[in-house]
Design goal:
The protein has 758 residues and is of the alpha/beta class. It is 32% helix and 17% strand. Bound molecules: ligand MGD (2 copies), iron/sulfur cluster (SF4) and molybdenum atom.
Amino acid sequence: MNAKAATSANTHSSACILCSRNCGITIDVDEGKFAKIKGDPKHPMTKGYICQKAARLDHYQNHADRLTHPLKKTPNGSFEKISWDQALSEIAEKLLRIKADFGGDAFAFVGGGGQGNHLGGAFGQQILRAMGSRYRYTSLAQEKTMDFWINGRMFGDQRIHCTEDVEHADYVIFIGCNPFQAHGIPNARDTLKHIKKDSSRTMVVVDPRVSETAKMADIHLQVKPGMDAYLMSAILAIIVQENLHDTEFLSKHCTGFDALEAELQKIPIADHIEKADVPMALVQTVARDFAAAERGCVRIDLGLQQSLHSTLTGYLEKLLYLVTGNFGRPGVNNLHTLFIPLLGNTDERKKDLKLTAHHKMLPISGMYPPNILPDEIEHQGDDRIRSVWVDSSNPVVTMADSKAYTRAFEKLDLLVVVDVAMTETARLADYILPAASQFEKGEATGFNAEFPENFFHFRHGFLDPIGECLTEPEIYTRLLIKMRILPKRFPVLEKAAKYGSVAGYQPFLMALMLTVQANKKLAPYGASILHQTLGKALPKSAQSAALLLPLALDYASKHAEAVKRCGINGNKFTLGGNLFNKIITSKSGTIISKHEFKDLWHFIKNKDKKIHLKIDRALDELRNLKNAKDLMDGYPFILMAGERRAYNANQIFRNPQWRKIDKHGALRIHPQDAEKLDLCEGDTVRVMSKNGQQDVIIDIDDSVRIGMVTLPHGYGNKYKGEQNGPALNELTLGNHCDPFTKTPYHKYVPVKLEKVPA
Ligand SMILES: Nc1nc2c(c(=O)[nH]1)N[C@H]1C(S)=C(S)[C@@H](COP(=O)(O)OP(=O)(O)OC[C@H]3O[C@@H](n4cnc5c(=O)[nH]c(N)nc54)[C@H](O)[C@@H]3O)O[C@H]1N2
Ligand SMILES: Nc1nc2c(c(=O)[nH]1)N[C@H]1C(S)=C(S)[C@@H](COP(=O)(O)OP(=O)(O)OC[C@H]3O[C@@H](n4cnc5c(=O)[nH]c(N)nc54)[C@H](O)[C@@H]3O)O[C@H]1N2
Ligand code: SF4
Ligand SMILES: [Mo]
């Protein structure tokens, strides 16, 4: 199957692509199969750490749903194999027709990078520019835009992002996250074990379930689902009402504390704690001890971000560490750098934003929320979305309301899907373009978010693409040529690229600058121009790295001292090129910056270099908490629709054989609830929401709160035609979401349960 691999077993450095950690791994390949996978001790961050999921990666690389040829939908609904030339020519003509007839805004891009592949996304964005559209719908905009929006208000730019130094903290609060299973922090299980073992360090977990992380905690606050805003505001109110806040930090580094304090003084603490349904004494202990901690740190995730009041909880989370001065030091929350600019800055106070036609929705960080896309397609009006491009995403399964997605996608004039596998979304497409897998090309993730030391891992491809698969850089570059946006060749640049890294790539960069100056229309397509020129001069396994050169130059110019502290030398002309060289030659990844803590204050973009705590929208939401409506609508249970467990990993695996346990993706239900419904272990139950139903096997489990049931994320696709576990987004609705950011309330889906007779 694979020429290079077929000869003998050989070992390659790479990374696991199953979650945002992208742990370094080594893979022994034998006959195209991944014979053995181990943690890579040379990876600068993960240092050999992996979890149980990485060992199963062969199920991603080799399975029956892998795509091997470009496919075109025929009138009878089946697919025919076509050549790349035909596929890209036809798609190019159709896109240009749509743009000419309806304008670029009739086009939307969905996805552009999963957990491990963010280089392809940079190439995909060029199609948005070619179409003249700003509609970029991403998974991040169904989980983290409240955070980005608050960052914009607090720090002056939505691209500024916080991290948490859990490893060095002596008091950690985890709210709505389960790092034991979902990771999200470096080497999570080892880090958790160290905290647990050390009696001088405290771990608090706020979660309605006794999660695997909660089991390791010193204090577990088993909050009522969706009621965190009450709990978090009560903790802050205790801190402020008992004068435990860090006045020195607040006056030196923040503005707007007076307005915030006035609100927190008014919080009826006992009422809020009753709403959250946790013991008052424990909450007081947490508030007092966290405020007194030397190194206190807060980590949150989807348990807050995909539940009620998520704009407010995104704000309260930051207040917890800012009001207590747990910011800008070892073991607390910090700001960090990003090597790949994953986030944009779209502050709605600037007037040039494109609102969507139907929902009049703002972008946040340059992204639009998937919850509204079906409505934007079905919108009655000439300004509706008529064409969608999907890359590295399976929205029909993963975005809220699968039925609405299917209905809307069927109405499109053109749907193109770029994926490694035949997905549920691909089945609806007019054209399916097969991408090389993440082990068949050079790739990287932009999720490196560490401080004070940050790293970057460019993984080299080590297998030849199967069938006719192409890398994303190649797919998008060829399409831009077909769209007559790029010329086929850049002879001068190609020549200059041959000088390679001589003088920090200066001859090449000079030639590039002159080319773009001579034809300014080329400027938005730098990724593809670099790929066509410098990329072809790089070793084959690293061709897709060419676009990292300008990113390295930019990073080195912004953080020169921090880069030099890693032993990367150079002057202002050569440092960036040397950083780029270091990245593309370090097969296990490399440290790219070592900052000093004081540098973080320069990351803040507010003119006064202070953190702005008064955010009116969030304070309004806080004030209105007392009027908040119950969203249960008479349904008796809250379904947490999308739990991270031992054997789920988004939709990256399709063959259910990858799972060692939990094959059915069982519904967890408390024994008392099971008894009330006359349910026994292993029974089938019908889960009914406002939108649909799913029959699932139950697992009676006292780790969940009474009244709450949970189903796992990452199931529900159809492998070889057979549905594999619960399809959660058959149950969810697009409008069940935060009114401001439109991020879904997936952790708070009201449902009924009914026993299905055997
Ligand atoms: N194994 C595995 N790991 C993964 C993934 C995967 O599919 N599988 N996916 C990755 C991705 S894309 C993401 S975004 C992350 C997500 O990572 P996490 O957010 O950490 O994972 P979840 O299990 O979705 O939710 C975290 C916790 O929120 C709790 N929770 C539910 N409702 C509430 C509530 O109302 N309040 C509070 N305080 N807590 C609540 C749940 O009980 C759960 O323990 O995981 C990543 N890691
Ligand atoms: N109900 C509910 N829904 C949820 C969640 C939940 O908790 N509950 N969680 C949400 C979250 S946090 C997230 S992040 C999303 C994730 O949902 P999506 O954004 O859809 O991402 P993935 O599930 O990771 O899908 C990745 C796709 O990329 C493809 N792929 C893999 N490698 C490559 C490659 O190299 N190139 C290309 N072009 N494609 C590739 C895979 O085959 C797969 O089809 O799901 C969300 N949906
Ligand atoms: S799933 Fe995440 S934590 Fe586990 S090995 Fe892969 S990247 Fe590391
Ligand atoms: Mo996610």
